[in-house]
Amino acid sequence: MKYLKHLSLPLLIYTLSASAQTKNFVHILPADTEKEVIQKAANVVPAPRQLRWQNLELTTFFHFGVNTMSGREWGDGKEDISTFNPAELDAKQWVKTVKDAGFKQVIITAKHHDGFCLWPSKYTEHSIKNTPYKGGKGDIVKEVAEACKLYNVGFGVYLSPWDRNNADYGDTEKYNKYFMEQLTELLSNYGKVDEVWFDGANGEGPNGKKPTYHFEDWYRLIRKLQPQAVIAVSGPDVRWVGTESGKGRLTEWSVVPIGQQTNTSTAQNSQKDISFPPQGDMTGDDLGGRDKIVKAKTLAWYPAETDVSIRPGWFYHAAEDSKVKTPEELMNIYFTSVGRNSVLLLNIPPNKQGLISESDQKTLKEWKQKMDATFGHNLLSGSSVKKNGMTWEYDLKQAKTFDVLALQEDISKGQRVEKFTAEYWNNNQWIKFAEGTTVGYKRLIKFEAITAAKVRIRIESSRLTPNISNIGLYKLAQ
To answer: Is a pLDDT exceeding 70 seen at residue 138?
Structure first.
């Protein structure tokens, strides 16, 4: 059995099992010219599960567990679980709150690093079955899954590989058997699972040892039991953007050389501090530019997920009730995550009572109002358009004021745009008001407000013919 430190070629070949049909990875041959490599990269497309996931745009994390009661971020597995009794818990309130704010999928922390399970697992006593909650008959994973079904919201599970409670954690064979048993429970008993989230943390267990994670076995099990679920972060379908600040790259390619994200780097940085500086290529230009892909042996569709918390911490802390991000901050995060070819995973932690707090609800409601007011009407609607090659020229018929540009590619056909420019007509000349590199699923750019009756969008560089699916101009809500 081969165990992984990186998302290796053999692993991706297996886990991208529909590759022959979807072409979501491609081999680069030693004899391939740069032109041939670019052509291959332009024709890599997402698997159906990846395309469904990208179209969600907005997803939610629910960090909830014994840490919520203890006030800690990372538990040590020795917590007194008799304190876990969220008497007012209402999973329907959680899901309805985020759906009303525009979120289309949720992920529940079924088990965090402390090893405490929010479902009555048969394989540990460190679970909800031994708490006062509902007399030991509770199952919060089930409650969330049922609420998701009720409100037609996607359902996902976070299962921490690191388990600081399990006595077998340092024994590779025993612990991986235990982990597979728990993963089987989650994938078999709660209906459709849309995303499985592994953060890759691998600290020491109670015995001071670390196991080797059998990622290949885990992935095979997920593909068998929930074949349409994306496997995220320490997985082959979705990669971590590299920071928990809510800011993605200005140049974000979904087609990248295999091996850009490692489980080690994820473990070192995930969920420690949302303000830690971006790592590696996050501070550089991009992961999938021409200079990167011409050196690759294999390219894969491996899109980015941007996770960030609505509060300073990931679990609820009463002291942070006054530190919830503002609607304006969430709007900025939308621009720097979804608007940079990523999916936003916003953590909204329920409180000790088992409810989404009023302060979080207020921010989400006001943010949704700003989103609707901003993006509810495309100012290009009703315009006449002339397309000439890779240029789109719009006549708005009357002067309109705008300060947001939106571009989208039809990513079902791949990601191709490398550089674009936006201009408006003024005093018998075209004047640039925005420019950028990648587009992908969505690119949003803010700028100083402009009033004009004519605009044009020029694709200056593209890997084969670009497939632009949407162009929009908007005015930010005040």
So the answer is: yes
Residue 358: what pLDDT?
98
- Which pLDDT tens digit goes with each residue over 249-281? 999 999 999 854 444 444 444 443 322 223 334
Q: Are 160 and 113 in contact (CB under 8 A)?
A: yes
Share of the chain residues as helix, strand and coil, in percent rounded to the nearest 5:
30, 25, 45
Distance between CA atoms of residues 355 and 308, nearest Å: 20
Predicted structure pTM score: 0.92
Question: How does pLDDT run across 443-465, given as a tens digit for each residue?
Answer: 999 999 999 999 999 999 999 99
CB 141 within 8 A of CB 128: no
Burial class (CB in 10 A: 0-12, 13-18, 19+), 387: exposed
231 strand-pairing partners: 196
Is 349:83 a contact under the CB 8 Å cutoff? no
Please tell me the CATH superfamily of domain 384-474, with its number: Galactose-binding domain-like (2.60.120.260)
CA 200, 127, 167, 164 torsion-angle sign: positive
- Which CATH architecture does the domain made up of 9-375 adopt? Alpha-Beta Barrel (3.20)
9-375 against 384-474: fold identical: no
Residues ≥6 apart with Cβ < 8 Å to 20: none
CA–CA separation, 40 and 448 (whole Å): 38
The label of the residue with tokens 């940085």 reads 269
Burial class (CB in 10 A: 0-12, 13-18, 19+), 35: exposed
